[in-house]
Amino acid sequence: MSGVGLVVALVMALLGGLACAVHPLNRRGLQRKQWLADRIDALLPQTQCGLCGYSGCRPYAEAVAGGLADINRCPPGGDHTITLLAELLGTVPKTLDPALAPVVNARLAHIDEAACIGCLKCVRACPVDAILGAAGQMHTVIPQFCTGCGLCVAPCPVDCIDLRPPVAAPGKPVWPKPGPAYGRAA
Amino acid sequence: MMRALHAFPGGLHLETHKEKTCAESSLLQPLPERIVLPLQQHIGLPAEPIVGMGERVRKGQMIARASGYVSVPVHASTSGTIVDIGLHPVGNPATPDARCIVIEPDGRDEWFEIQPVHEYASVDPRELQAVIRDCGIAGLGGAGFPTHVKLNEGVENAVDTLIINGVECEPYITCDDRLIQEKATYVVAGARMIAHAVQAKHCVIAVEEDMPQSFAALEKLVEDDIELVKVPTRYPAGGEKQLIKMLTGFEVPSGGLSIHIGIVVHNVATAAAVYRAVTRGEPQVSRYVTVTGDVDRPRNLQVLLGTPIHDCLRTCGFREDGEARIILGGPMMGTHLRRLDIPVIKTTNCVLVQPAREPAAELPCIRCGDCVDVCPIKLLPQQLYWHARSDDQDEAQRYHLFDCIECGCCAYVCPSHIPLVQYYRHAKSRIAAAERQRQGADHARTRFLARNARLDRQERSRNGALPAAAGADIAEKRAYISDAVERVRDRRLQRDPNQGGDD
Q: Quick one: average pLDDT of B400-414?
């Protein structure tokens, strides 16, 4: 019995060693991988939409740090995030994975409160706890917390959730960049 | 004894064009058909409406309350009915529409009951701050920073000098000059109140050399407690940092506030508003606005907040042939207005009408360095320009972009007509937007991780893994507590052996 155990242990160790040899980042150890995952996570938009195929931004960051996922799988981040990741990892920027649909504008979830039946399905689906509600009571989205991931849309049995462009925050202007026509009367 | 003045770097001698309006007494702008009061007339969070549609309000009644510490309430500027609460144009080129409360005046201009504070000198400075906040006073010099916040800095920190800023350095604008000439008693009494509120050791009122009538009016009223100073006419002498440098020789540190060097600066109109708020309980419902330039009767007007700019222009004989270029603010720092139905707000100091002209085409920078010579902050405007233009925010910040006061001296002297300030504003707002986005992402990350931890905990408690852990936890805590009790008892025994064991 112990002999079998020894063989299993040996095979495991060998496999582990091989896995480490596969990717150069793995060789630097777990700590280094954690550090890298933190850095990658800091560049991701934190939408938590799961469009990359992972359950959130952190898991995707860990997959990229472990060499298991490519850097071009974040549609909300788009080209900007890909460029930042390529800079961090010292690789060449790519275009977004063609299998993924690009996300164009930032949007926020909106619940048609008159139609809501209070089923809690969207509350459970929200990755950032941005939907407030109790069983049988009206639900609503807290716009400051919503990341616009859209994960609440599909579970709704009465189709009362949609994504809308956010209302611009008052007093937070982004001034236009001067162009050739700047300052000319309309 | 006259204070020795220091010079600030850079700056410009400009044609003042003030003679058109500074000698004419101000007019009361008649009641408009509709009053539009934006919820945000100040720096900070917008106010929150506390009235409903169709409600009758009276002049001076609070209709929106402050929504945070750095926020001020909004008051009805006349009596009437609330007819709308929604988006209306406010004239800011970057956010054209903002939330406003619209009042249809009933023509009676009936005041709400207001409560004056008697004997301010015996009132606690903090109470005075609360009065000033509830009266909705935001800095009237132009930036609109909530006044009570600046007063609070004085309570928290030692204030050496309070400066009341009457240095209206931008060409054409005379609203502060007229206010001092007509309401000098308010300004001086308000200055004393602010000095009490911030517990300032010294109080200085500064006016420009080309405001002789104002100087004379103030001279009659000031006593030993207030020092009256004339500063040379040089743009931008009225900028907070430049004025501090001139009067004290000190510089406000980069990224810091004047309070960090023990100085607080308030505008003269703010001092007058504080006087009204404290002695009469009158909230901020009107202000002086200079309407000047290419109009038939350039004048200063006393305007109810929320009055459309169009009405003010009409009072001053504006020719509506559509050929003019209207500037909100002065010629150096103002913004070009594309529509005239926007309201006068707490920070509106001037409406300037200039003949329409095509702006000169922007030519390439020839690196002449004129902008460097005139910059009052000693920045390198052309370096800032390169980095702002190429959207290199990090480099722009390395060249201290955020110390730029947007005075416009660099753009004024630029032989290539480059709208430099617009580039800096664009870069600043881009950086601020990126920072907000980063904060939002950090927040989302925290919430995501917290939710995952909670789900994990629920899962484990369902599997029966948690109760045992909780039990072990309690035992551990009990041990920790009994250890601590032992330690305290030992220490007490050491200190006073006779008392040991009694407790």
A: 94
Mean pLDDT, rounded, for B319-342? 86
Closest Cα of chain B to A179: distance in Å? 9
pLDDT grade, residue A20 (50/70/90)?
very low
pLDDT above 80: residue B492: yes
CATH code for the structural domain at B19-309: 3.40.50.11540
For chain B, how many residues are written?
A: 503
List chain A residues with CB under 8 Å of B334. none
Phi, psi of A162 (to 5 degrees): -140, 170
Range of the domain at A56: 3-100
Identify the pLDDT of residue A186: 31
Every domain of chain B and the residues it spans? 19-309
Contacts of B385 in chain A (CB under 8 A): none
Q: Does A107 touch chain B (CB under 8 A)?
A: no
* Closest residue, chain A, to B426 (C-alpha): A175
**Residues B56, B80 contacting (CB under 8 angstroms):** yes
The chain A residue lying nearest B327, using CA atoms, is A183
Enclosing H/E stretch for A157? none
Give the residue from A58, A76, A100 where a domain finishes: A100
Amino acid at B56: R
B473 vs B105 pLDDT, higher one: B105
Distance from C-alpha of B32 to C-alpha of B50, rounded to nearest angstrom = 23
Question: Is A184 within the bounds of a domain?
Answer: no
